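Summary for the steering committee. The consortium agreed at its last meeting that each partner would contribute one worked example illustrating the joint modelling workflow. Our contribution is presented below. We chose a case with several input lines so that the handling of multiple components could be demonstrated. No manual editing was applied between input and output; the record is shown as generated.
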Amino acid sequence: MIAVVGRLGRWALNQLAVGVQVSVLMVDTMSWLVIAPLRGKGFRFRSAVEHFVEFGVRSLPIVGMICFLVGVIIALQSSYTLDKWGANRFIAALVAVSAMREMAPLMTAVLITGRSGSAITAEIGTMKVGEEIDALKVMGLNPIKYLVAPKFAAMVLAVPCVTVIAIFIMILGGLTASVLVVGVDSRVYLDMTLQSLAEKDLVLGLVKSVFFGIAICWVGVYRGLQVEGGAEGVGRQTTSSVVTSIFLIILIDLVFTVLFYFV
Amino acid sequence: MMTDTHEPIIEVENLVVRYGEHTVLDGVTFQVRRGEVFVILGGSGSGKTTLLRNLVGLMRPDSGRILIKGEDFTSMNGDDRIELRKKIGMCFQGSALLNSISVGENVALPLREHTKLEDSTIEIMTKIKLELVGLGGVEDYLPSELSGGMKKRAGIARAMAMDPEIIFYDEPSAGLDPIVGAGIDVLIRKMQETFQLSSVVVTHEMESVKAIADTVCMLQGGRVVGIGSLEELERADHPYIQQFFARRPYDEEAEDSAYARALTGLD
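What follows is the complete predicted structure of the assembly.
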């Protein structure tokens, strides 16, 4: 019994320590992102743009392809039920609403986690193992400013941007499947889509995707800085980074879905 | 050899560092004089790496002080710390060049971040620093394309970028063949003689010590067991120093019984 309490206590203390470390990282990042540039200490704008291209632009082919296919899948799956009621034209509404509110932000976030969240952890972890982080500190360069702040800015912008494109591609996927397979008239489909587009849905999708971006970047950086003991440690933390990120994405998704359910 | 009239540039006073229950550095005290090559010598686990990490400010000690140029580095924070760091350079064991940028960019990095110099000036200074360490013309290579010895040299060039007053070397000749390692020793000496640079070198290689040291500080189990010129240490009658200099192994029988005691917990 005492052993169980002891283990629980140790677990709680560990979680508390993680919480404190993550909070310190958050405060540091925000101050290097917002306060330091105002005080003229600079922000590595070029690095942020390079990372934006890497996280956002370069992820477009895979995000586009997956989202097109998901659009096709949603259309065909919903036709399975709607066809029985002769309501196939509502496929358009279903695809548009689920793309904006749920599927496009989620698929984008998960894909960017796999592509870039893991890469952030691996990069920072390898730098830590190779004493590169220490070298930055000794040179008087803050690793948060040099490495984290540009990545963070890029990620928080890239995820919503890619999400917007993903929404359109997903609707295009739904359109293609409805017209070619189900036999809905393309004009009816487009009309129906336009009718069902609501600002509120888009806002929900984009607000979520900003938080997804925050989660992906912070988990990636935190896990990278946790790396100990060589290549094996980099591998372990990279895996853990992807798993933690996806878990947090689902959690954030749930919180916002519940919030907007009551709004 | 430097004379005693030179003022100390680094003063370490009663440094204590613990990892949990384990005391790694136990009251380490010494002074490094301006312009000398100061070698911290010790075996594995003697605490020499921990000492170096404290000296460059990557760790903070549990107690004791480190004064660099008379200023208390241990209690310093924020901007003061960064200012002082611009005056010190460090050459890491694995060179620790940033792998994602070219060798030239690595050397230029501190200049770009800490100075407002024109790009063309930085480019010239980078070339000069690389020439200085015998690496002219490699600025466009990536660190991964260099050999071990060249990486070490590039690491020294980067440490020299801001024209520091003190330079720290962590195991400079570790992992290099004897010829390349000797080349690094010559370079360390040359840097000291050309720029009157104060150098602190952590090593366990006696050959290297003989080639470069003005003062040797011998660490064992987190304590300073001897300090002085190489000749003074060679004459010292401390058993560990004699054993280290003669490259004699531990007495195996005594080691075995100590190991058995550690395993069983019995005396």
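The longest helix of chain B spans residues 178-195. Strands of chain B lie at 8-19, 22-33, 37-42, 63-68, 71-72, 88-91, 166-170, 198-203, 215-220, 223-228.
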